[in-house]
Write a structure and sequence with these properties.
Length: 249
C-alpha cells in the first residue's frame, strides 16, 4: 500500500470510528508502528487530524468566521435549540457565551419569557432586544471578531462578581477523555471561568464536534450538566452516561 493510500485509509477509519490507536492501525494496515506514527505526524501537520498520546482524534469542523458559521447546519442547530428550550426556566440568571447554535436558541426564546441574561456576545445581546421581560447584561472586554465575543482580563474580572443558575456554553470540540477544548487560550480562559460560576452547564453540539479536540482545554467533559446533540451512536451514549452527563439526543 502506497503512503497516500495508507493515509487516506487512516482518515477513513478515523472518520468512521472517531479515534485511532497507533498500535491498532499498525496491525490493521500491516506496517510498523513507526510508520504509522510518521503518517499521523504528516496528517497532523496538514491539519487533517489531532495527534494525541498513542493515536489521533478528529479535528472537528474548520474554524471560520461567525458570519459564515451562522449559515452552516442551521436546520440541525435549530433542532438542538428546540430541545434546550425545556431546560430554561423563568426567573433564572442565564449566562450565554458566543456560538451560532446559542444564537439559534436565543431566537426561539418566547418574547414573554422572564429572566436575566448575561452575555459576552454582541449578537446574543442584540437578538434579545425585543424581549421586554429579559434584562440583558453585556459583559465587556476586547471583541474577538472571529467568534464575535468579548474576551480578556476585563471579561474575567467582571465574571468574578456574579453567580449564575445556568451557563449555555458554545462548544468547538468535545471528547470524553480530553474534555472540552477550543482553538484559542483567551476563549478557553473565559469559558472556564463561566463554567466555574454557574450551577449548571448546558452544551449543544452538532455531531461533527463529538470526539474531536483542539489545543486549549476548557474543562472536563463531565463539567456539562446537559449535552444536547444528534445522531449519537450507542458507544457515545455509553461514554457520556459514564461521565454522568445528561445526554439529550
Amino acid at each position: 500500500m502506497l503512503k497516500k493510500e495508507r493515509q487516506d485509509r487512516i482518515l477513513q477509519i478515523l472518520n468512521e470510528e472517531h479515534k485511532v490507536i497507533a498500535s491498532d492501525l499498525s496491525k490493521r494496515l500491516g506496517v510498523s508502528e513507526d510508520t504509522i506514527r510518521r503518517d499521523l505526524k504528516d496528517l497532523d501537520n496538514q491539519a487533517l487530524i489531532k495527534r494525541v498520546h498513542s493515536g489521533a482524534l478528529r479535528i472537528g469542523p474548520p474554524v471560520v468566521d461567525f458570519s459564515v458559521r451562522e449559515n452552516i447546519s442551521s436546520e440541525i442547530k435549530m433542532k438542538l435549540a428546540n430541545k434546550a428550550l425545556d431546560i430554561l426556566k423563568e426567573d433564572m440568571v442565564i449566562l450565554i457565551d458566543g456560538g451560532t447554535t446559542n444564537l439559534h436558541l436565543v431566537y426561539q426564546i418566547p418574547l414573554t419569557f422572564k429572566a436575566n441574561v448575561i452575555t459576552n456576545s454582541p449578537p446574543i445581546a442584540t437578538a434579545l432586544r425585543n424581549h421586554k421581560n429579559i434584562e440583558v447584561i453585556m459583559v465587556g472586554g476586547t471583541l474577538f471578531k472571529q467568534s464575535m465575543v468579548n474576551l480578556g482580563i476585563d471579561t474575567v474580572e467582571y465574571l468574578n462578581n456574579i453567580r449564575c443558575d445556568l451557563y449555555i456554553m458554545g462548544i468547538y470540540n468535545i471528547n470524553p477523555q480530553i474534555g472540552i477544548s477550543v482553538p484559542t487560550l483567551a476563549e478557553a480562559s473565559v469559558k472556564r471561568k463561566m463554567a466555574s460560576i454557574s450551577s449548571e452547564t448546558l452544551g449543544m453540539v452538532t455531531s461533527d464536534k463529538l470526539d474531536t479536540a483542539s489545543n486549549h482545554i476548557v474543562c472536563p467533559a463531565n463539567k456539562l450538566t446537559y449535552l444536547i446533540t444528534e445522531n449519537v451512536s450507542s458507544d457515545v451514549k455509553s461514554i457520556y452516561k459514564n461521565e454522568e452527563v445528561i445526554l439529550i439526543d
